[in-house]
Amino acid sequence: MADFSGKESGDSGNGSGSGSRRSADMASVELALFSRLFILSPDSPTIAIIGAGLTGLLAAHGLHKNGFKAVVFDKDPGPDVRERDWTMLMHWALPMLTELLPEDILADLPQAFCNPHLDFNEDAESLPCYNALTGTSCSGALSRMSKTEDGSAVVLEFEGGDKFEAERVLGADGVSSKARELLAGEERARVQRSGFLFATGITRYGDADKTEAIMKLHPVAALMMGTSSVGAVGTMAVDDPQDKSTWTTFWVKIWRGESVHLRDQEALNYIERETSALSGVFQSAIDWTPEGSRVFIDEMKYWVPVPWDNLGGRATLAGDAAHPMLIYRGQGLQHCITDVRNYVDSLVRVRGGADAAKVMQELDDEVVARGAKAVQQSLQEAEKSLDLETIRKMLMVTQGHGRSA
Ligand SMILES: Cc1cc2nc3c(=O)[nH]c(=O)nc-3n(C[C@H](O)[C@H](O)[C@H](O)COP(=O)(O)OP(=O)(O)OC[C@H]3O[C@@H](n4cnc5c(N)ncnc54)[C@H](O)[C@@H]3O)c2cc1C
User: Fold this and answer.
1) pLDDT, tens digit, for every residue of 34-65?
2) Ligand 1: which of 22, 25, 54, 159 to mutate, judged by most atoms within 8 Å of the beta carbon?
3) What number is the average pLDDT over the span 217-233?
4) HSE-up (13 A, CA, CB side) for residue 335
5) Where is the composition biased (Basic and acidic residues) (predicted)?
6) Does the Cβ of 174 fall within 6 Å of ligand 1?
7) Is the pLDDT of residue 11 over 90?
């Protein structure tokens, strides 16, 4: 259990949000946020956050910065147990992120950039799309949630028998959220399969020419569309900025197909056998994958938000728990950050005397409406992405990474 009871100082002021597009790797960002969580307090905390992913950790920081007490629960003991790694573009939600985080973490955040040595100019801030035809601590997993008899608190129960009573609960436990299931009911909360498969490979070629071929497409990340698969390549980590043979890159491939959940060589074999080739460097990046590389294939899942029981305004959802979407246009994290900013603002209003039930209902109504729009857009983008005729109608083409939900 990680306590944000206000023991730390130095949270004054906001960072300056640039609104720029930076690519950061998932594990480094989580580590940056997680490393500050181990301050235990004897005070009884009031807000329980379920899930120490980016949404939960950011909520803890945002609440702490605004003088609230919060406790984060996660089924995993820490970020090191996460086997997945991917990169995320941060764009329109950056100013909100800087509002929520303390100065010292903001100062360290560039360390999580995939290439902290890159001079981020207008070119590096864009995401090119090529035409394919031409080239916290652990408390166990949450299992039950109920209001106390007088309705003044929420009782959380965890697998293994631990119980915890909190004034409020924020469910930030990701795509297959248990909090969502407990608040919306098993049927209504069930995550849906999209039929779109997503593969990613983490590649360290040990060969400067191969890395250079990827960099030539774009120094951060580039996309390819126009065949029955979508491809992407980019930088994930830079050891020695002068020696590209030390750099780690990634490739991505998306296609429509039968659901599979495969890892490493098996995943690579499946991609070669079952999916149509990309073109140029996008295909070479996959072909060059060194033996022993991490490769993942999963089916992307989604849930179109519908209203949930917020236990009289005491429980709500945020992040992927509230609106798991397909990864098109890199919107997921932006909405996670928006949720957290709105949650913190709502609690500040309640503390200032506003009607709690009303404020928290408005909060939920907004996240359901915004989340439903964003999830549906991600599904429509996926449908349009596999056909040259419809690609030009994608939000990705007409609006880029800008906000549309
Ligand atoms: C390949 C890929 C690329 C992406 N690229 C982008 C991008 O470019 N831009 C962008 O904006 N977004 C992007 N996203 C989306 C973004 O990564 C997610 O929206 C975001 O990380 C979700 O964070 P979260 O904290 O809500 O969920 P998660 O990170 O899933 O965290 C949930 C946490 O809850 C815990 N948990 C689960 N169940 C329980 C339980 N029962 N009890 C206790 N704890 C539990 C888990 O252990 C986990 O720590 C991408 C996603 C993927 C997969």
Assistant:
1) 544 434 344 545 899 999 999 999 999 999 99
2) 54
3) 91
4) 32
5) 1-10
6) yes
7) no
Does residue 74's CB lie within 6 angstroms of at least one atom of ligand 1? yes
Q: What is the pLDDT of residue 35?
A: 45
Sheet holding 47-50, edge to edge: 2-3, 70-73, 47-50, 168-171, 315-317
352: tokens are: 């200032």
CB of 203 closer than 8 Å to CB of 249: yes
**With 0-12 CB in 10 A as exposed, 13-18 as middle and 19+ as buried, what is 157?**
middle
% pLDDT > 90, the chain:
67
Amino acid at 401: H
Pocket test for ligand 1, best of 136, 327, 328, 331 (most atoms within 8 A of CB): 327
Rounded average pLDDT over 212-221: 94
Amino acid at 328: Y
Whole-number pLDDT of residue 86: 79
Between the CA of 319 and the centroid of ligand 1 the distance, in Å, is 7
Ligand 1, atom 1, residue with closest C-alpha: 86
How far is the centre of ligand 1, averaged over its atoms, from the C-alpha of 72 (Å)? Answer: 15
Q: What is the pLDDT of residue 343?
A: 98
Q: If we measure between CA atoms, which residue out of 141, 129, 170, 161 comes closest to residue 46? A: 170
Stated pTM of the model: 0.87
What is the rounded distance in angstroms from the CA atom of residue 230 to the CA atom of residue 224? Answer: 6
For 210, phi then psi, to 5°, come to -65, -45
Pairing type for strands 315-317 and 168-171 reads: parallel
**374 Cα: distance to centroid of ligand 1 (angstroms):** 16
pLDDT, tens only, 343-380: 999 999 999 999 999 999 999 999 999 999 999 999 99
The rounded Å distance from CA 174 to ligand 1 centre is: 5
Read off the tokens for 153. Answer: 């608190």
Q: How far is the CA of 279 from the centre of ligand 1 (A)?
A: 30
